[in-house]
Amino acid sequence: MMTSILSLASEAYPLIKTGGLADVVGAMPGALAPHGFRLTTMIPGYPEVLKALDSRQVVHRYDDLLGIEARLVAGTAYGLDLLVLESPELFSRGGSAYCDVTGRDWPDNWLRFGALGRAAADVALGKVSDLHPELLHAHDWQAAMAVAYLRYAGVAAIPSVVTIHNIAFPGRFPADVFPELGLPPEAFTIEGVEYYGGVGFLKAGLRAAAAITTVSPTYAEEIRKKAFGMGLEGLIAARRDHVFGIVNGIDTAIWNPATDPHLASVYDAGTLDRRKQNKRAVETAFGLAQGEGPVFCIISRLTTQKGMDVLASLADTLVAMGGRLALLGSGDAKLEASFAAAARRHPGRIGVRIGYDEALSHKLQGGADAILIPSRFEPCGLTQLYGLRYGCAPVATRTGGLADTIVDANEAALAAGVATGFLFDGVTADGLTHAIARAVAVYGNPTAWRLLQEQGMKADYSWNRSGKRYAELFRRLLKETHRSGR
Fold first, then answer.
1. Could you tell me if 379 and 480 lie in one domain?
2. How do the pLDDT tens digits run along the chain, 486 residues long?
3. Residue range of the domain that includes 410
4. Any residues with CB less than 8 A from the CB of 2 and at least 6 apart, and which?
């Protein structure tokens, strides 16, 4: 018999995606099913989500969900079992999941995701007919308030897990929203939802959860330090016995160079010569002059967190070292302009596409030689996992999940034939320049480069291992709950 889990998140691939969170949420049902868990994914009723539903059934209606009319709709889409909070007032609007068309956060995000958390808590408490999950799994600040609602429900509740995908986004709102959240007055304390004088959605969930997971072991350690903890390091340190680092997996059916329909030529570790056709396709797509030198790619949000400011300053240096650059991304307007200017200075050597294109991201992983990921912090990262899978060598900062998943091509690792990429410490111009130079040097040795690609492609970064670890944690929490008689 399958154990029922309610997985709560603000996005899920392929329904709606703004980042790696969606990939993880969309992949987890398949990752947990072999271990005896059936996940129902609960997400907001954005227009694209409602449109994608194959079937739908209204299972609950709200006349007053934090002052808003709403209803819960059960359905399926893309093989996912879904529970959708439908409320046009909250979720049917322009812009993105979190921002308006100008890129500014919706001012009522506290209400939108507070309502989502309140409704999820109702489901977890058995208040919605025919829905009786045995564990609640909440992802990031947008879902974490559900765990706080369970805590203050006044009745025994099911165990809960909060996963931190990026602690840099804590979901902090002014104190004056607290009375509107429907929590008891005693919840507004440092031991509850109060966070630096306001309301902290993520903090509230981390305080109340039976277990906390992060998306890599190194990140689980980093967020106990002031430099990474974003003001929550004390709470993380105090709850260290309940914090677990589990590296994300990737969907190896979607991300498979041997079957990827987006590639000009499919290939595997034994047929790497076929990648040349994909490299030519990348050159054509980005207006790069054909050549045999390395093509570096960027698939990223253009922000300082991602180290794009340092990388933009090194565009001329990269070209001078014999490299070419293909960039797909968007973000800070000044960084967008800086990379566009670099492309104008180096026609045929630098190509820039502002925006995001899922198909083009596959083409880059399948055709570029290396992917640049100079993040100042990176909880897990998925682009390096896709790069490893596709033989696109990562050049990355030694932080978070990047440190956990890439074997640096130092002299010993190259000699032993175990290297998979290039790591450097500290996001500085010198550090990144040296890492790019090392990549160019190894690329100049075709035998060493091919071995590096093969090693990356052989590594298992599927959800098999990660799914097993989540299943073990869920089983333990459920056993402890049953033992305590709750």
1. no
2. 899 999 999 999 999 998 889 999 999 999 999 999 999 999 999 999 999 999 999 999 999 999 999 999 999 999 999 999 999 999 999 888 999 988 899 999 999 999 999 999 999 999 987 889 999 999 999 999 999 999 999 887 899 999 999 999 999 999 999 999 999 999 999 999 999 999 999 999 999 999 999 999 999 999 999 999 999 999 999 999 999 999 999 989 899 999 999 999 999 999 999 999 999 999 999 999 998 899 999 999 999 999 999 999 999 999 999 999 999 999 999 999 999 999 999 999 999 999 989 999 999 999 999 999 999 999 999 999 999 999 999 999 999 999 999 999 999 999 999 999 999 999 999 999 999 999 999 999 999 999 999 999 998 889 999 999 999 999 999 999 876 655
3. 272-460
4. 33, 36, 37, 38
> Do residues 354 and 377 share a domain?
yes
- What number of H helices and E strands is found in the chain? 20, 18
Q: How many CB atoms lie within 10 A of CB 128?
A: 18
Sequence-ordered list of residues with C-beta below 8 angstroms from that of 483, at least 6 positions apart, any chain: none
Same domain, 342 and 283: yes
Structural domain contains residue 397: yes
What's the structural domain count of the chain?
A: 2
In a domain, residue 256? The reply is no
> Could you tell me which of 352, 349, 399 has the C-alpha nearest to residue 379?
399
- pTM (2 d.p.): 0.90
If asked whether residues 173 and 287 sit together in one domain, one would say: no
- CATH of residue 366: 3.40.50.2000
